[in-house]
Amino acid sequence: MDNYSKCQQIIKEQITTNYLKNIFNIDGFLLSFNAKTTELIKNKNVLKNLTKEEKTALIDYVCDSFVNTLYNDNQYINFTKKDIDDIKIVYQKLFDDIESGIEISQIEKNHYDRITQVLISTNQMIVELNTNNEKYVHTFVCSEYSAQFQIDLFSLDLDKLNEPILDVGCGENGNLVEYLLSQGLDAYGIDRSHQDKPHFQSTNWFDYQFVENHWGTIISNLSFSNHFIKNYLNKTNIEQYAKTYMAILKSLKIGGKWYYAPSIPFVEKFLSQGTYEIVNIPINETLSKTIITRIR
Ligand SMILES: C[S@@+](CC[C@H](N)C(=O)[O-])C[C@H]1O[C@@H](n2cnc3c(N)ncnc32)[C@H](O)[C@@H]1O
Asked: Residues 201-214, buried b or exposed e (16+ Cβ, 10 A)?
């Protein structure tokens, strides 16, 4: 195995070692470097022999693994592009510490202090949720739904769907978009967990450019509105969500529709009646879905 693949393998195992461990535990620190990571740090040659490009690729890899592990465990965690750059700096500093030859226990402490700081400054909600004596963090795992489920939920008539179609928070597999494409429709999906490929963009919805007057149909099942509600209840990122909500609405063409669930009554009540037609349809006793049509 070459040096780069060896490092990748050790990173994977290291992430498994600390999987779900609560970094904010008040009784004592639970995360640690495992034996293979310790060995890698001691045996400086492996890291030293990596090229500059390999080191950059390794930082991207460990940062991606870190971010995606957290997203998978708690769908309400959010990292913007800037946060991800800050996380890369944390790993760059880890590499610098390793190269500087300081004690392993100090390298470990510096690293977890920096990780803790980055979480505190980016996701206060998980700090509050996990500052306790639990050994493992609270998880909020997200599911994906079949295309048929989403078509039925929103009563979509595929023959009449206005194109192009955008699924905001389309899921890692983009089930609905894949199905719409298979039916010959001009559909696109964005999601931070989907890979970049034709018709799909891997992006945070806060970083995505919603072009005005562009989309015929926008769909978001249990994604944008669900996260907006969660953040509203936690009093976090409300302005960012409100701005993006308006940007999504403005990206509809006149006559275009945005279908989403669950409804967001605390925002919908402020929309201009002359510009948007809002229809709320109950799903069950507590939840409803919303269809907004841009009328001018
Ligand atoms: C419950 S899943 C629903 C997926 C899909 N709409 C479906 O019904 O199968 C929520 C999706 O929102 C995505 N998501 C959450 N926060 C996001 C963000 N800030 N930017 C982009 N996608 C996000 C997650 O990656 C996840 O795939």
From this structure: beebbeebebeeee
On average, the pLDDT of the chain sits at 95
The CB of 237 under 6 Å from ligand 1? The reply is no
Residue 30 lies in a domain: yes
Domain total for the chain? 2
| Helix pair 81-100, 104-122: axis angle to 10 deg | 170
Write the pLDDT tens digit of every residue in 247-280: 999 999 999 999 999 999 999 999 998 999 999 9
Domain containing residue 12: 3-130
108 shares its domain with 173: no
pLDDT reading at 1 higher than 90: no
- 121: CA distance to ligand 1 center in Å? 22
Instruction: Please report whether residue 190 resides in a domain.
Output: yes
> What is the predicted pLDDT for the residue at 45?
83
- 140 in any annotated domain: no
234/102 same-domain check = no
Asked whether the predicted pLDDT for residue 46 surpasses 90, the reply is: no
How far is the C-alpha of 229 from the C-alpha of 236, rounded, in Å? 10
Q: Is the CB of 142 under 6 A from ligand 1?
A: yes
Pairing label, strands 288-294, 252-261: antiparallel
Query: pTM of the full predicted structure?
Result: 0.87
Smallest Cα–Cα separation from 153: which of 259, 245, 226? 259
**Residue 170 Cβ contacting ligand 1 at under 6 Å:** yes
